[in-house]
Design brief:
11 helices, SAM-dependent_MTases_sf, alpha/beta, single chain, methyltransferase, Lys/N-term_MeTrsfase_sf, 7-stranded mixed beta sheet, Methyltranfer_dom, 7 strands, Rossmann fold, about 40% helix, about 260 residues
Amino acid sequence: MSKYADPDYWEERYRSNDTTYDWYVPFDSLEPILRPLLQPPEQVRVLIVGCGNSRLSASLYDELNIRKITNVDVSPTVIAQMERRCKNMTEMQWICCDLVNTSPEKLLALLCPNDYLFDFIIDKGFIDAILGGHNSFHNVYTVTKNLSRLLKKGGRFLSVSYGSPETRMDHFRRRRLFFDVEHKAIEKPMFNSTATTTGHYHVYIMTKLGEKQTAIAVGDAGAALDGTTVSGDSDDDEDDFYDRFMMQTTSPTMAADPSRIHTL
């Protein structure tokens, strides 16, 4: 198991290093994507999952004038550190919560106490960390289902990942998530003027649809390479989803022609 999937690792890391750090990309790299989606800023309710000690929420507050921001992390230490660090941002919330093991009912009560669902959810590396742990496919499905429940219809879930579409799209397209998925690639940041681009990170933007819209979208875009429906899953076919996923990502056809991986 990757250490990044272990809550104890993060708690120890934050206890020993009270600072800020942004995984993958800084706010400046995401701002062109986020700004047009987070409108109007005074009305948008944003949830940041696995917030850690990132400056992302502070940048949204200062640069985009978004005030209704809820930050969630499994580490009580980092929540306390960031709440203290951002104490002047009085409308921002910091909540310690285990998104993998907390029931949907408790999550709704904790994060949406007045039945106000979120307009936008942001993940920067959180899904990647879960995928490095035990029962990773099941845990990602549990978390993404819970996040879908916390989103308004028409709301968006943006996930920043190192994982390419062939390793992430199927997770986000599962039928019970009710997501339409768009993929964008962004260049890895360069840390000096003479450096050359070394690759890309991936941004997945999920828009929550209604159930009927999801059925139509899956009918148009959800066909797997073997003719089955990628997102046509139920709560009872976890093993089938895993087997189907592995068959697709290791198939000779996929290896020979990566362009057959569908991205919107």
